[in-house]
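for the recovery benchmark. tokens below, seq after
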């Protein structure tokens, strides 16, 4: 006869084997230019915290003043969202963090080491092209068959991506950074945002020429025909309604032609902000609108696109980061990653964790 103790022991052994066979859960942190989002592969919840990472860098300081709030967010956001404490945790630093490398990889490596020690989160600085791959992966998950174009256009605060399944273009030219370039070039101002309107014809030429120079890499990065769906709020809540109203006389539609956008830019550039508010029936975020429209116009010009689809989604880098086995492999060799960050800079991410001592 089989004893009860034997059966109990067998049940415990089966449970232990099953638990060991299950892959560990993952928590990821999308650390952008203006805050942190946390997500887990076993939860649909996303937790968010606001931290300004671009401001200190623009002022010539490093990210030292962001260390304490970052550690707090990395500790508190998973608890707030109800994520398991046992999950493996990795963070991805994007546009502002790439800028921080350019300002000093040694300092950033030491700073990331302190964040790791205090929070247990391995924060990696993610290359632009990898961020683009995350973007397309996330958009495909959210839009499914509704994604009819070859690429998605994601304009963030610090960077932008034109992300496709096989090719991606990325540049540190998001909404805030492009606007800052215009403030410096046209208004000789370090303030962001600055007042760009009204803008003369000559100033429009300067702006468009400057943008074309900054987007020269698109031709080689995206050699095939490109069609785009814009998925971020600067387009869906700013450029799209403005174009529909200024160029077509209505606020309907989820796409527009490049010719309509150019016509709207020419009309808007002649107006003051007050006149723009009266024309569009609002005053929110209008300081960014003309620079956003110029940016989208330049992107369509550079890709040869005649039209732009628009579909706002709450896109983050979380789905791509959570699925990134390479990133999570670095978690086990994080000291080696920090050493390579000092020596290789941004290329540290792409190197092989298995070759670490």
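predicted aa per position
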């Amino acid at each position: 006869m089989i004893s009860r103790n034997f059966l109990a022991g067998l049940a415990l052994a089966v449970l232990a084997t099953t638990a060991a066979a299950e892959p560990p859960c993952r928590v990821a942190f999308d650390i952008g230019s203006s805050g942190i989002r946390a997500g887990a592969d076993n939860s649909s919840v996303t937790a968010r915290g606001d931290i300004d990472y671009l401001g200190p860098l623009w002022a010539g300081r490093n990210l030292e003043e962001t260390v304490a709030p970052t550690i707090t967010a990395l500790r508190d956001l998973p608890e707030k969202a109800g994520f398991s404490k046992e999950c493996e945790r990795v963070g991805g630093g994007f546009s502002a963090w790439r800028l921080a490398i350019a300002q000093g990889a040694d300092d950033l490596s030491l700073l990331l080491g302190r964040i790791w020690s205090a929070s247990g989160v391995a924060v990696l600085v993610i290359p632009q092209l990898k961020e683009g791959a995350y973007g397309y992966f996330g958009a495909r998950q959210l839009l499914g068959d509704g994604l009819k174009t070859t690429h998605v256009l994601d304009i963030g605060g610090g960077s932008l991506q034109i992300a496709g399944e096989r090719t991606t273009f990325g540049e540190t030219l998001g909404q805030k950074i492009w606007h800052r370039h215009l403030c410096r070039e046209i208004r000789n101002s370090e303030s962001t945002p600055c007042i760009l309107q009204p803008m003369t014809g000559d100033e429009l030429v300067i702006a468009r020429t400057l943008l074309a120079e900054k987007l020269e890499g698109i031709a080689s990065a995206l050699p095939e025909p490109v069609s785009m769906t814009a998925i971020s709020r600067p387009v869906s809540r700013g450029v799209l309604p403005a174009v529909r109203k200024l160029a077509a006389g209505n606020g309907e539609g989820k796409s527009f032609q490049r010719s309509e956008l150019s016509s709207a830019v020419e009309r808007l550039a002649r107006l003051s902000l007050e006149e723009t508010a009266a024309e569009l029936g609002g005053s929110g975020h209008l300081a960014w609108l003309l620079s956003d429209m110029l940016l989208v116009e330049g992107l369509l010009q550079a890709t040869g696109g005649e039209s732009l689809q628009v579909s706002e989604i709450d896109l983050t880098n979380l789905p791509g980061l959570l699925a990134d086995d390479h990133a999570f492999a670095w978690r086990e060799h994080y000291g080696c990653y920090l050493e390579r960050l000092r020596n290789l800079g941004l290329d540290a991410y792409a190197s092989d964790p298995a070759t670490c001592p």
